[in-house]
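User: Hey, quick favor. My workstation is busy. Could you predict this chain's structure for me?
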Amino acid sequence: MQQNRRQVLRASALLAAALSLSACGFQPRREPELLFQSIALTGFAPGSPLAQELRRQLARTPVKLVEDPNRAELVLEALLDERDKTSVVTTTAGQIREWQLRVKLDFLLRTPAGEVLLPNTQLRMSRDMNTTESAALAKEQEEAQLYRAMQSDVVNQLLRRLAAVRLPS
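Assistant: No problem, here it is.
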């Protein structure tokens, strides 16, 4: 009897939560709707992981990636595409105990004619990572995973900014 009552209360609470979320207009974040047909990416370093992630995300949209900036509707120009790793905490013996990982992207968005639609914009991400010598391989994998997550976050922020751009008439 007591257990049935708990199950009914739990189901009622879940139903109430679901109804309140739907009533307030909550929706999961969707893919940004880009209002242009084609884009060219310039200024990225060859093999840049950030550029690869951006290309992968753009491939999921109707926007066409164009190699020639003169044939694109918009040009995304990377001014800085950088990853770095800085020691934050060291022991008295000089051993590093914590790293700060950073991903930086500075870019501008322009038309092929040179009209700037988004001036120099900076996107920055950082994560702190503890480290120990005894788990070096695991920490290497954690570092790679953190960089991938930061790149994905930067690309998502960039796509939201691109979705807000209005093309000149």
